[in-house]
Design goal:
It is a single chain. This protein is mainly alpha-helical. The chain is 69% helix and 0% strand. Helix 1 packs across helix 4, helix 5 packs across helix 6 and helix 5 runs parallel beside helix 9. The radius of gyration is 19 Å and the shape is elongated.
């Protein structure tokens, strides 16, 4: 049986289970037999989907970015590109919380042990930046941000938000500086740092939060 003929649901379940085992128990837990038992399938199904454990880890990374891309793509564009950046931030954070094990693997937070990722694998997920980059470009074109290099600004925002989300997943953000408080302050600070008017940015973030709660 080829992977194309195999049940895609089982393939997705294997990737999710593998990420959880790798993050929670380490590389030693990632045996073919254990993984098959977690999903309720045969070891043959594991080999059908993945030629080896390196391929399995690579699949975790790629599936993690695929899910992130879907989440970011669901935000869409509005007439307010600053609000779009806020909405993309919420989506990024939501994806990490919903798929915390995959998130840890795709960004190297999990101990990969003897499993290897190539530089190409590690750079694979950069395509997910296109939504943020587009929003930053629009902000500059419309005078909401100071003139600058959109790619660099998008990277600065990504780096800062990734750090916040990583701390949240690790349980480091607690009252009175709980995740929501830190997130809002972080995003507002980023917007102002690249030239956004503070009052206008606050209004845009309120609009972004309203979209999040719709």
């Amino acid at each position: 049986m080829s992977p194309r003929e195999a049940d895609p649901v089982v393939g997705a379940q294997l990737v999710q289970a593998a990420a959880r085992l790798l993050v929670e128990e380490g590389p030693a837990a990632l045996s073919t037999r254990r993984l098959a038992a977690e999903v309720g399938t045969s070891t043959t199904a594991v080999y059908t989907w993945f030629g080896g454990k390196d391929d399995l880890v690579r699949a975790m990374v790629r599936d993690g970015f695929r899910l992130l891309d879907l989440q970011l793509g669901s935000v869409g564009e509005s007439r307010d590109p600053v609000a779009d950046i806020g909405a993309l931030g919420w989506a990024y954070r939501r994806n990490a919380l919903e798929h915390r094990h995959l998130y840890s693997v795709m960004f190297g937070g999990a101990v990969l042990g003897g499993f290897s990722l190539t530089d190409e694998d590690r750079q694979h997920g950069r395509y997910t930046l296109r939504f943020l980059l587009r929003a930053v470009e629009r902000c500059m074109e419309e005078g909401r941000f100071a003139p600058g290099e959109p790619q660099l600004v998008a990277h600065q925002m990504w780096i800062a938000l990734h750090g916040l989300v990583t701390l949240e997943l690790g349980g480091y953000l607690v009252e009175p500086y709980a995740p929501d408080v830190c997130f809002e302050a972080q995003v507002l600070g980023l917007l102002v740092s690249v030239g956004a008017d503070r009052e206008g940015a606050v209004a845009s973030l309120k609009a972004a939060e309203a979209r999040r709660n719709d």
